[in-house]
Predict the 3D structure of the following.
Amino acid sequence: MAPLSVQDVRDLIIDQLANGTYAVGDRLPTSRDLAKQIGSHRNTVAKAYRALADLGLVTLMPGSGTYVADLVDRHRHPALSTQIRGEIESQVFKARRLGIAKEELQGLVGEVIEQAYLKEKISGAFIECNISDVAAGISDIETYTGLHLEPMLLHAFESDPRAAVAGYQMLVTSLFHIKQVSELTSDLSLPNLRVLGVHTQPDEQALYAIAQIPAQSVVCVIVSDAQSGTRFVAQVNAVTTVKTEVLILPSDEEIRHLAGRAKALICSRSRAKQVRSLELSSITTIVLEFHVTQQSSARILDVTLGRQGNGEKLGGVHGGSSAGEANGISSAAVFRRDGARAHP
């Protein structure tokens, strides 16, 4: 491993000042002690301390030590900008050594900037039928794209679509709800409102656990609505042959009763808390969660950035919208309201 440079040590301390490791007035380790801690040379640390002093972050007091003079504040201090510039320079020179053309590099950097700051430009909401799946969908999409969507429950959207979508440029929902959402927005005459359907996939570990359930066993499926019940039974039947019984928004007593003769309980994310609270240790409990795919998330980013792909035109209405098509190939159905009703 290459030894730490002066810039590396400086940036390490800047990070510590930014995250609260040190407070104003704290004495930093001696150059000798810090060099031992991080595997650097004493002279390198001493130079890093002087660089920090030039930025006004530390005070060098000969014979006494190095003290924190100021904390990193992104609103008033150039230290973070200096740090970031150094990192950018390092990567730019690396790209030049690798033979990447200036124009190509500028394009790559531009895409990264657009993605990183997208949340400040796009106002969107993620719609699902329960708060657990809303939170999970938002988290999945933000993890893959950096885009943060606001939560919206399906029943709240259905009760007053116009009020629900006010101020939003984009609505995102799973393909299982895309038909409902697109039809309800079709009569609002909001041509700039985009409706995107994302494909969700079941958790592989949960499917593996379901596949281990002995054939012809009784399995209890616990969900929050009938549509989810149909979806879960289909997933179970795809990996094993069992006898399924579905409970929709059951009471604790109903779950205990069925658990008495079932081999396993398979519950949705939204019912997991209830099932776990019952502490049914004598029966296998599997939480079958669905996650937004990375491919669908990438398509959301493409649409919001105005990029086109796979022959799609943003002004049209594309992709399947029925629950049956939710298990198809399309990973992100794109709808744009032009005042006309969407045709699946």
Summary: The longest strand covers residues 218-223. The first helix runs from residue 6 to 18. The chain has three domains: 6-81, 119-200+293-336, 204-288.
